[in-house]
Amino acid sequence: MPRTWASGLRHPGLPTRTEQADLQFALHPAHGDFPHIVVAPGDIDEAFMDSFESFNWADRYQMPVVVLLEKFLASSMFTNDGIDMSALKIDRGLIHQPVDADGDGYRRHALTADGISPRTLPGMPGGIFSTTSDEHDPEGHITEGIENRIAMMRKRMAKLETAAREIPASSKFTLHGPRQADLTLVAWGATKGAILDAMGELENDGRTVNYLQIRLMRPFPANAVAAILRNARLTVLIENNYSAQLGALISEQTAMALDHHVLKYDGRPFSRNEIVEGVRSALSEQKKEVMVSHA
Amino acid sequence: MPESAAAAPKKFALQQYKTEVHVDWCPGCGDFGILSSIQQALFQLQIPPYRVAMISGIGCSGKTPHYIDTYGLHTLHGRALPVATGAKLANNQLTVVAVGGDGDGYGIGAGYFVNSGRRNVDMTYIVFNNGVYGLTKGQASPTLAKGLKTKSMPEASIQEGVNPIALALGAGYTWIGRGYALDVKTLVSLMVQAINHKGTSFLDVFQTCPVYNDLRTKEWYAGEDIGRARIRKLDADPEWDPVVKDPSSIDEVVEKKGLALRASYETGDSLAVGVFYSIALPTYDEQLAVKVPALKDHPLVDLPLYQRDVGPLFAELA
Predict the structure, then answer these.
(1) Any domain includes B2
(2) Who has the most CB within 10 Å: A31, A107, B130, B310?
(3) What is the pLDDT of residue A6?
(4) Is the pLDDT of residue B241 over 50?
(5) Same domain? A67 vs A114
(6) B71:A101 CB<8 A
């Protein structure tokens, strides 16, 4: 299964700098309506865990997984307190073991309730399969039949629901700080460190502050995010891009808009001070959108 | 093949290399000759069907794996070779055969075509070369020569056609051949040699597309207009010797490549088929097994996955 590592800013012109410009690209990386997983780690610990799990998810759900890693995280030096690897387990997903070397009616793309068809590996006696990038029947042969198309679309998309059900909430999002606060910051990816640092300073303004960090972008935890946003009094979106791409995703998935946007698109990562200044400026001047750059 | 071996009972019947899937190529398509040749070559070699992986790109040729009862992966346009490379590296006990059209391989897949030549993974690549994009109704493909105008083109091509044999020589393929789809006997023999060769074998096959290429027809290859066949068999010349005897001799390599190059530029009224070039060089898989000795005894896919404890590494860096 393919796994893609997207990093910050490759397209218009700053290949060695950082930005969160590729979230919407990672969500729509190709033509067609197909399932895939997009996860965006916020620090090196999450990058390690998400990388490990991405291989498991790719095999378990038989779909591409994009780990959206930012240039800032990939080429900075960090320290941590060690990573607990005892809970990590390699999961190669469902493998069909043929009982008869002459074939036992195995069908590579058999219709199943959770959308996942056990696979065989080329070279296994009795496991011969056909597969194709074209629409196919359960045997993996090309067909453009109407009923089969509907069944196969539903089967593939059911895998997203299966993944959404099985992936733990702790991998999907984190609400840092109190459950209820005067001000809720919403962000994703490597802005995490600067935002955590800025929260204390913002609390000095007399508001309680929490921070919703969204990590799993597809399948999107829409219900949980909507519940947190409904509970929030004042929301500020913080993104390292021009077009507030997570804001667009939240609107798409929850039909909710965030109150203010603090954006930065100079090719450099957010500093703690830029977060503080941007949030203060948006709130005091009642601006929908604020751009910050200390360059 | 010795008489006794030929008479020995075969474990796998020819039928076991065929599926029951309806073949939907146009009547008279040269692809039938290539499909039949692949099935007969696998049968002659008696490779267990479950040990074969047929990998294709997109186009009429892309449907080939559906008609052969082995592992079959019909992948993306131009991407047969990278998938085939992955299949062979994951399981070095597989016989991997990639197939595709000239548009698939020399157009969108041209970068993979060149880099597969220098890599020399032990696999076979067969190209169905008909000069047109048949599946999309006959646009000019990379091998259509300048000045030709097939029936779906509004005007003659003003681009040169690529020379696949010359490109393969430059890329470093270690076995290079060409066949003709309607001469199945020769084609089977070439495929058997290609599959037996250790390294990446490249077999370009002149294929007729009776529906969309109305210039390179079976009558044209038969030379009905000039009174003699256009196909010229290289091995009809007793002097023809495409095999490099001393791979360390750059002089011999250049000499043999030069002869192959000259033969590949025969066009018009004489088209060479047969083995153009062959050299024994270490394969990518063999070189990998030197670095990873466990691969000598077991394919990668059979090696147990295990989790390394990276704790000591972290401790060392602390």
Answers:
(1) no
(2) B130
(3) 47
(4) yes
(5) no
(6) no
Range of the domain at B108: 12-317
Number of domains into which chain A is organized: 3
Of B49, B87, B299, the CB nearest to A128: B49
d(CA B65, CA B69): 8
Query: CATH number of the domain that A84 lies in?
Result: 3.40.50.970
Same domain, A147 and A176: no
Q: Do A85 and B307 touch (CB under 8 A)?
A: yes
Q: How far is A144 from chain B (nearest CA, A)?
A: 13
Please give the backbone phi and psi of residue B250, each rounded to the nearest 5 degrees, phi first: -65, -30
ipTM over 0.85: yes
Q: Is B2 in CB contact (< 8 Å) with chain A?
A: no
The whole-angstrom distance between A51's CA and the closest CA on chain B is 14
What pLDDT does A11 receive? 57
* CB–CB contact A123 B74 (8 Å): no
pLDDT category at A10 given cuts 50, 70, 90 is: low
Give contacts of B 24-83 with A, CB under 8 A.
48-51, 53, 58, 63, 65-66, 69-76
Look up the domain containing A201 and give its range.
Answer: 170-291
**Residue A58 contacts residue A255 (beta carbons within 8 Å):** no
**Residue B1 pLDDT > 50:** no
Do A122 and B53 count as a contact with CB atoms less than 8 A apart?
yes
Number of domain units in chain B: 1
Backbone angles phi, psi at A93, to 5 degrees: 80, -170
pLDDT of the residue at A2 = 38
Amino acid A88: pLDDT: 87
| A85–B311 CB contact, under 8 Å | yes
B53 chain-A contacts, CB cut-off 8 A: 122-123
On whether residue B86 sits in a domain, the answer given is yes
Phi and psi at residue A254, to the nearest 5°: -125, -5
Taking an 8 Å cut-off on Cβ atoms, the answer to whether A133 and B48 are in contact is: no
Residue B135 sits in a domain of what CATH number? 3.40.50.970
Q: What is the mean pLDDT of chain B?
A: 94
User: How does pLDDT run across B249-281, given as a tens digit for each residue?
Assistant: 999 999 999 999 999 998 768 999 999 999 999
Supply the angle between the helices A222-231 and A245-254 in degrees, to the nearest 10: 100
Mean pLDDT value of segment B236-243: 97
Q: Answer yes or no: is B302 within a domain.
A: yes
The predicted structure's pLDDT at residue B8 = 67
Q: What's the Cα-to-Cα distance from B99 to each of A122, B50, B61, B143, B264, rounded to whole Å?
A: 17, 18, 7, 16, 21
Q: For residues B186 and A85, which has the higher predicted lDDT (pLDDT)?
A: B186
Q: Choose among A90, A123, A132: nearest Cβ to B93.
A: A123
Q: Answer yes or no: do A12 and A34 share one domain.
A: yes
Of A71, A89, A107, which residue sits at a domain end?
A89
Q: Does residue B5 lie in a domain region?
A: no
Inter-chain touch A121–B301, beta carbons under 8 Å: yes
Instruction: Note whether A239 and A247 are within 8 A (CB).
Output: yes
- Nearest residue on chain A to B92, alpha-carbon basis: A123
Among candidates A50, A51, A56, A48, which has minimal Cα distance to A82? Answer: A48
Which residue, A281, A170, A192, A287, is CA-closest to A239?
A192
Contact flag B311-A82 (C-beta cutoff 8 Å): yes
Q: Which of A9-23, A113-127, B43-57 has the lowest mean pLDDT?
A: A9-23
pLDDT in tens, A91-120: 999 999 998 877 778 999 999 999 999 999
**Beta strands A216-218; A37-39: pairing state:** antiparallel
